[in-house]
Design a protein that fits this description.
mainly alpha
């Protein structure tokens, strides 16, 4: 016996009613996913602070922060623009405070001093790297969540928020020191796509 068109429509409707549907990710889920990413990249930035080779640590930090921006842009479905990301990172840090960009450079170079130079620089860079990465992540999380893109980002407008998040980032760094190693982003293992 052949089914009628009406029967076919009923069967199709019943099948679609019972088929699993993929729910779109809503705002609070995106924010939670972004927050998790920021914490992982912050922990990874802390690890970079102990890299013993001066200036290599700063290059690795920039690469990690770029990976974080790439990851956040994917989360919010924003086209990634590497050149604008690098520019934004530099602008955010220098707009916050001129010394904020000079301190990591000085700490990195002080690793050339045997013994105490490496120890003090490593301790300083763990905090600075983590706090700056956290703050950059939070600024872009807020920017992307509000519908912004790399093209619409204005670092000067984000300066105060960056400063607040930088200070908060110092506290987050303290909390992350006890994190499991599996929660830390490996700065070398994940290439920017």
């Amino acid at each position: 016996m052949m089914a009628t068109t009406e029967d076919d429509a009923t069967i199709a409707q019943e099948a679609s009613d019972t088929a699993p549907t993929e729910e779109p990710i809503v705002g609070h889920q995106l924010d939670a996913q972004a927050e998790s990413q920021i914490h992982k990249f912050t922990a990874g930035a802390m690890v970079i602070g102990i890299v013993p080779i001066p200036l290599v640590d700063l290059a690795a930090l920039l690469a990690l922060q770029m990976k974080m921006l790439h990851s956040l842009s994917k989360t919010y479905d924003i086209p990634f623009k590497a050149n604008l990301g690098k520019s934004a990172i530099g602008s955010l840090i220098s707009a916050y405070a001129p010394y904020a960009s000079a301190t990591p450079l000085a700490a990195s170079i002080s690793k050339l001093i045997p013994g105490i130079g490496h120890i003090s620089a490593g301790a300083t860079l763990v905090i600075l790297n983590g706090a700056s990465t956290y703050a950059i992540g939070k600024v872009f999380e807020q920017h992307f969540a509000s519908g912004g893109t790399f093209l619409t980002f204005v670092p000067e407008k984000a300066r105060d928020y960056f400063g607040e998040q930088y200070e908060k980032g110092k506290k987050v760094v303290g909390n992350l020191r006890g994190a499991k190693s599996s929660e830390v982003i490996d700065p070398i293992a994940e290439p920017v796509g």
